[in-house]
Amino acid sequence: MTKTLHYRACHLCEAICGLAIETTRQDDASTLISSIKGDAQDTFSRGHICPKAVALQDIQNDPDRLRQPMQRVGTQWKPIEWQAAFELVAERLADVQQRYGQNAVAVYQGNPSVHNYGLMTHSNYFLGLLKTRNRYSATSVDQLPHHLTSYLMYGHGLLLPIPDIDHTDFMLILGGNPLASNGSIMTVPDVEKRLKAIQARGGKVVVVDPRRSETAAIADQHLFIRPGGDAALLFGLLHTLFAEGLTRESHLAVDGLDAVRSAIAEMSAEAMSERCGIPAGQIRQLARDFASAGSAVCYGRMGVSTQAFGTLCHWLVQLINLVTGNLDRPGGALCTQPALDLVASTSGGGFNRWQSRVSGLPEYGGELPVSALAEEMLIEGEGQIKALITVAGNPVLSTPNGRRLDEALEGLDFMLSIDLYINETTRHADLILPSTSALENDHYDTTFNMFAVRNVTRFNRAILAKPEGALHDWEIFVGLAQAFAARTGRELKPTLPPAQIVDRGLRAGLYGDASPHKLSLETLYAHPHGLDLGALQPNLATRLKTANQRVQAAPSVILADLARFAQSSTPQAGELLMIGRRHVRSNNSWMHNYHRLVKGKPRHQLLMHPADLAARGLSDGQRVRVTSRVGVIEVEVSSSADMMPGVVSLPHGWGHERAGVRLEIAKGQPGVSANDLTDERQLDALSGNAALNGVPVTVAAA
User: Global pTM?
Assistant: First the structure.
């Protein structure tokens, strides 16, 4: 037996932690994973590792993982050859489009699509041939308000200022729990040490959340906030900054600040206090503390994205950083300049160029909000969706009113899934095409390097050989494109493997000939622990993509949305509002099929404040029935003083009991799907993003 040590980064979440992976070559020539540890020499993660990375070997060895194309015949699955599968897809999709039109075929791309460079470089090689407007993704149940705000203010949806966490003196976190998520729209491995370093140098960390989360537990200050009240808090903060003269001049050219000041003239801390549940005095003091810090950054994440005023929240976050002089400033919010800069190489986006057929929800970046997907399948009429392609996604568990989507999938004429598993969504597919596993393919982070708290780069080489008969995801898309083009007579342009595309981008990028680091794949091969390209630096002024190269502080569509905010009501007395919850071991539904991630104390329960339990005659550990407009679930309740009274918390991603699911470990878990309660009608009306937080529910004994 021969042992070999390999280095690469984990790409199961945004932290991209460096790993030291030991393999053992057996006497029978097979290769096994012996151990996975944090790489102490990694230039970015500094040896940090979380349980997800160790679970890579479980994914590799999982007997439930598909390793060849599978076709559903009745209720049975049988293997099918690759070329036959490609030709079957081409035939069925071409037939649907010929009978019902181009938009009768829909596409849903899940979160893992941005964790694999083959999907990033080649998915559109096939999907673009379909020329359908019915494209959806996990973006609209997550971070769409981030992108829309940046598109409207800075001219590009990927110009996303990131907290300069390593140099800030004051970090204000709203709706984020980086200790559980490892950062999110903020690539930040080893985040706990970085937050504690702020405190060690005399700075301050403040967390605003309806739950005392893992991050709130280590913060200097935690403020409970009523779900959906973040916009009110942010309005109160911004109003205080203006009213008390706490603003600073920015070096950026800005249009519209006077319009902003006028628009929020009535939104004082006192006026906003009742709406967010935070006393006016605390709002004002928080604004003063933020403004007086040597450097400060306001960071809002998923909790403020997935609510009724998600876009307003992210606009206000940007404005607070801007008017205090902390936007595009060390220690504040800075845009990363990665080796492969998607801002320079892609269009800025586009908004509301078309709308969904049934509810008229707006398009952003070529995609419609996924809350519209089920109704576009179920409601008859011209343009009804008749076929669906899912790519690395499980929308039955991850999008609002999953039961309705489950029902809609049953009525499709044809469904293709590119996935590793038969899960709650793919069980409806006619055909599932699985790619190689994470350890069997190369990877380069085109996306998460864009959000990193330092400018970093690395190329991750495959640890294990590609199994005979298997295809990488990019090869699957090339095969599908070739078959569809041949079937429909479409012209197909030549393409390159992902590694060659990355190499060309590196050679042409910012860190090319004029840089101390002349980058290419060859350079990155020589740096297996990654390459640190330096701290974040001010660069927004030269990278703005707005028409006049100025920050647009008062986009008209955002100012128009203030009327909706003004007309919205506060929760009724005694009403319970449900929020989601993350845990480092269960961020995503696919993580529940690995023993090392689901072992230990249960993490699926509904959390509820003791006073709310007592008021309903309920007790800790009791089984309860939770009801929303769209559904009813039964789950164990857990008493928690970490919850704000009037708020309950149910984690996302559970609920694997459905018939036909082939996830044996996950099916043994007792959790239920929070998205059987979330409501596809609850949206951020401006962007169309799902409002998964602040869902009105009732809780009673089961």
Answer: 0.97
